[in-house]
Specification:
7 strands; alpha+beta; 4 helices; 161 residues; three-stranded antiparallel beta sheet
């Protein structure tokens, strides 16, 4: 009788996107901040500038931001986070180990579902091609470049729905 081998693959990871309140959960705020710092460190290398304000934010600063938060998590690990106000994506961060897996897109899609405004704004480093491609692929249109600090440029985008 021929032998057959059964190949067992690990179950596919389930990534869930949930709304959270870091103000009410300090350990969660610290996890989000760790992902934020690692994500902005990658952007700082891409643009050649470490002066990105959110790279230097504290847990207290993060909690003080007047935004709504979503996180992408696998089990208890946060792989990405996004924050928004009523008409703006304030920040989008993905852990470097989870880049290019669709987490940023999934977070932006979820944010767009929660924003009721007809015009949604977002900004990213002018010299950050991966982020720019993501927003453009989702229908955001480049509106302007602005210098936020001497030599530190943002590309601003708008999505009209």
């Amino acid at each position: 009788m021929p032998h057959s081998k059964l190949c067992l693959l690990p179950p596919a990871a389930v990534i869930e996107i949930v709304r959270v309140d870091p103000v009410a959960d300090r350990p969660l705020a610290e996890q989000i901040l760790a992902v934020q710092k690692s994500s902005y460190a990658v952007e700082a290398r891409l643009i050649g500038d470490e002066r990105i304000p959110l790279l230097h934010e504290s847990v207290d600063d993060l909690c003080a931001a007047q935004v709504h938060w979503l996180v992408a998590r696998e089990d208890d690990e946060i792989l990405g986070a996004a924050a928004c106000s009523e008409a703006e994506i304030d920040r989008l961060v993905v852990a470097p180990r989870a880049h290019r897996q669709g987490i940023g897109k999934a977070l932006v899609d979820a944010i767009l579902e929660s924003i009721v405004a007809q015009r949604v704004h977002v900004a990213t480093g002018r010299d950050n091609p991966p982020a720019r491609r993501l927003y453009e692929s989702l229908g955001f249109v480049h509106t302007e470049d602005s210098q936020v600090l001497p030599g530190l440029w943002l590309a601003r985008y708008e999505l009209v729905r």
